[in-house]
Amino acid sequence: MRTLVITGGSSGIGKATASLFAERGWRVFELSRHGKEATDDGLPVTGEIIHIPCDVRDAESVRQAVAEVTRQAERIDVVISNAGFGISGPVEFADIQEVERQIDVNFTGAVRLIQAILPTLRAQQGGRIIFTSSVAAILSVPYQSFYSASKAAINALALALANEVRPFGISVSVMMPGDVSTGFTDARSKNAAGVEVYRTADKAITTMERDERAGMAPKQMAQLFYHIATCHSPRPQYVGGFGYRVLCFLERLLPKRFVNWIEYKVYS
């Protein structure tokens, strides 16, 4: 039986992914603060999922959770670093403590997980690491600057890490979803400071949240995670959703100034 370890698997994309892997016969270890009781999105859980309490902001909590996984599992086949949240508001008026929390969960939390689990993957000479990134890593969203930055950092980390762990038979990929309809939208921490100065902020955030609520189903992203986990030779980067793949392709072809201007028009 193959084994999946996933953080942030108690809701949204993570919950759909944990459920899909368990449904297909994998042994799934879900690491999160909230646990199996979380039902913010109403998604049913199928198959057996073993919840282990874990706070990715606490290195000792992560080490203990990974130690418990290795105690119960003979091998770890796939690790998905998925824990994350969003904040919104103008950069000028951002609360620095919120910015630090954003980076600590979305980026440093992923680093803590990888540091704790790599000794096991190296010892078994193989495994797959998949990070949840975002299309916002490529197409930075105004008034969601720090979320975009945290995901861009994940993309850079994954590419560098891939070459570090290649000699050990470990692959590294990122999956970049577009808009997905989950509880992530309502859980976003909003900073309204400065919106009287930045007149486009309210419209931009409203547009962003409308698109998220009308977005893809979490199961679509879960199916892409499953493909990355089981395909013969995973690519470094994947984009979730055909339309978003087209946008990311065009972003590489078109001048940056033009792409950024288009984003301004969309969100202003």
Low-pLDDT residue intervals, each spanning 5 or more residues: 37-45
Distance separating the two termini: 50 Å
Figure out the total of helices.
9
Please give the number of β-strands: 9
- What does the average pLDDT come to? 92
What's the CATH topology name?
Rossmann fold
Q: How would you spell out the order of helices and strands?
A: EHEEHEEHEHEHEHHEHH
- Give the C-alpha Rg: 18 Å
Classified in CATH, the superfamily is NAD(P)-binding Rossmann-like Domain
CATH architecture: 3-Layer(aba) Sandwich
- Tell me the structural class: alpha/beta
Q: Helical residue percent?
A: 40-55%
Shape: globular
Gist?
With 268 residues, this protein is an alpha/beta fold. The chain has helices at residues 12-23, 59-72, 96-123, 145-165, 184-187, 201-213, 218-230, 242-253, 256-266; strands at 3-7, 27-32, 49-53, 78-81, 87-88, 127-132, 170-177, 189-190, 237-240.
Which helices and strands, and how do they pair?
Layout lengths: L2 E5 L4 H12 L3 E6 L16 E5 L5 H14 L5 E4 L5 E2 L7 H28 L3 E6 L12 H21 L4 E8 L6 H4 L1 E2 L10 H13 L4 H13 L6 E4 L1 H12 L2 H11 L2
Parallel strand pairs: 1-2, 1-4, 2-3, 4-6, 5-8, 6-7, 7-9
Helix pairs in contact: 1-7, 2-3, 3-4
